[in-house]
Amino acid sequence: MHYWAAAKAAAGTAEEPYRAATLAEALAAARTRHADRPQLLRLLDHCSYLVDSTQVGTRPHTEVPLTENGTIEVLPPFAGG
Questions:
Q1: How confident is the model at residue 79 (pLDDT cuts 50, 70, 90)?
Q2: Which of 12, 20, 32, 34 is 20 to 30 A away from residue 42, measured at CA?
Q3: Are 81 and 13 in contact (CB under 8 A)?
Q4: CA distance 34 to 40
Q5: pTM
Q6: pLDDT beyond 90 at 52
Q7: 77 near 5, Cβ under 8 Å?
Q8: Does residue 22 lie in a domain region?
Q9: What is the spatial distance between Cα 6 and Cα 40, in angstroms, rounded to a whole number?
Q10: Domain count, the chain
Q11: Rounded CA gap, 79 and 81, in Å?
């Protein structure tokens, strides 16, 4: 899982491994792991996500499968588009 910009600062790391079958599971694990970082917890609800370089968009996170050795990009809202 790769955190970018404000998400990176809020997580206190640029990346971390995950073990999950869906994006929802990976995000739940990240929330548990970072329970002591309320700024990140709030931010995750407003981020955009790329899974294996594909935009998640409005798909339910429970329906976004993850691949073994895949990537999740956590993109917070950026000012100026």
A1: low
A2: 20
A3: no
A4: 8
A5: 0.92
A6: yes
A7: no
A8: yes
A9: 9
A10: 1
A11: 6
Domain that holds residue 35: 2-75
Please report, for the domain that includes residue 58, its CATH number: 3.10.20.30
DSSP string, 32-50: HHTTT-HHHHHHHTT-EEE
> Which residue type, as a one-letter code, is found at position 60?
P
Q: CA nearest 20: which of 70, 57, 54?
A: 70
State both tokens at 33. 């792991």
Name the residue with tokens 């100026």: 80
- Identify whether the C-beta of residue 22 lies closer than 8 Å to the C-beta of residue 36: no
Give which of 16, 13, 3, 10 is closest to 36, Cα–Cα. 10
Length of the chain: 81
- Is 80 a member of any domain? no
